[in-house]
Design goal:
The protein is an alpha+beta fold. The chain is built from 11 helices and 13 strands. A 6-stranded antiparallel β-sheet has the order 2-1-13-12-11-10, with helices on both faces. A 3-stranded antiparallel β-sheet has the order 5-9-6. Strands 3-4 form a two-stranded antiparallel sheet.
């Protein structure tokens, strides 16, 4: 472990060099594609020089794939190169899926967003009653984030664990009044998973699979069972004191807040089905994307980067980092999946967007989050 980085550097000098030399881009008629392709190559070549850069990258412009590449290692010890179809933990990129499942229940007439969380959670402190399903979706519930108090249990046992933790907390007061403040909380989305189970009588995972994942044709996206043997699932790593270290693959207990694993291709299928109205009606999709406090809607952050609208979400979990960004006016989709938890996937996505949109020349060095030509720091951690 202590000497892990030294052989990796030697290994990557050859292997990643061949990756950089062999980058392939799909030519299309899109202006974004034609102008960006020449800038993507030196950027990714430069990034691939770092032994700590390991990521799968997908860029789709106007429905055409511009980049579908992987750089780095699925297993650094065995020297197994990363591939574009490898399976990653996606962390909080799970939240848009959970939000979609809740909105699907609402559209089916089985749930109202105005219902109190106390209609589904037992026991429920009286002071929590003003918090509604809509407040959970938008991170404005004001409820204390008890996520860190949950023990790592199988996904099907999570709601019983929530009951235990809430009961132990007793009459714990909200941190703010419902709807008054934005405060990102994993616990909000764990509660949403339990609401899905209470309404449907199914597990969160089973309902999600039948109502959201299967309609989108997502064959590689599942709850990330730490004990399962999963073909093409990659190992996770972290940086510590400047060295790449193995991350213990432990049960994450992330459930509906961040428990899914997925691939580049599945996330593209999901996004296309979502935007097309195949999972939710177009009106409901627009509702979910409408920004509220903190620029957060129902499972998405909607803001502007480089003066362009963007819908996005970032994920992070032990050993992994992810980011999905979509620029609707430009029809530009960017997905970054990394098996190094310290990778600034949002910064990488912002660099690629800046190159694609022509607002920056080729950035150099580490993932940018430097000021681009308009002075914006869209990828700041």
């Amino acid at each position: 472990m202590k000497r892990l980085v030294s052989p990796i550097v030697i290994l990557l000098s050859g292997v990643l060099g061949s990756f950089a030399a062999g980058l392939a881009f799909t030519a299309t008629a899109s202006r974004v594609d034609a102008e960006a392709a020449s800038r993507f190559r030196p950027y990714l070549q430069n990034r691939a020089k770092s032994p700590a850069f390991s990521a799968a990258i997908l860029v789709v412009s106007k429905g055409k794939v511009v980049i579908r590449e992987a750089h780095g290692m699925a297993d650094f010890e065995l020297g197994v190169p990363l591939q574009p179809d490898h399976v990653f933990r996606i962390g909080s990129l799970t939240k848009p899926f959970t939000a979609a499942a809740i909105l699907r229940l609402r559209d089916q007439g089985r749930l109202k967003l105005s219902q109190s969380v106390c209609e589904f959670i037992h026991p429920c402190p009286t002071a929590w009653r003003p918090a509604t399903v809509a407040h959970l979706l938008s991170h404005t519930s004001g409820l204390p984030d008890l996520f860190g108090d949950l023990e790592a249990v199988p996904a099907a046992a999570t709601c019983a664990e929530v009951d235990r933790v809430v009961g132990k907390a007793g009459a714990l007061a909200p941190q703010s009044s419902a709807g008054s403040e934005y405060s990102y909380s994993n616990f909000n989305y764990v509660l949403l998973g339990c609401i899905i189970e209470a309404v449907t009588g199914e597990t969160w995972e089973a309902f999600l699979q039948a109502q959201v994942l299967a309609p989108a044709g997502m064959t590689d996206t599942r709850y990330d069972d730490v004990w399962a043997v999963v073909p093409r699932r990659v190992h996770g790593y972290e940086m510590k004191d400047g060295q790449l270290r193995i991350t213990r693959y432990t049960d994450h207990a992330a459930y509906a807040a961040g428990g899914l694993r997925s691939t580049l291709d599945d996330l593209r299928r999901w996004h296309e089905a979502y935007r097309a109205g195949s999972i939710l009606s177009r009106a409901t999709v627009e509702e979910a994307l409408r920004p509220g406090l903190g620029n957060y809607g129902y499972g998405w952050q909607t803001t502007t980067h480089f003066g362009r609208r963007v819908h996005n979400h970032t994920g992070g979990l032990r050993g992994f980092a992810s980011h999905l960004a979509f620029y609707p006016d430009e029809e530009l989709l960017i997905v970054i999946l990394s098996n190094i938890e310290d990778e600034n996937t949002k910064g990488t996505a912002c660099d690629i967007a800046a190159l694609a949109l022509g607002v920056a020349s080729v950035p150099t060095g580490t993932p940018d989050w430097i000021q681009h030509s308009n002075g914006e720091r869209c990828g700041a951690p």
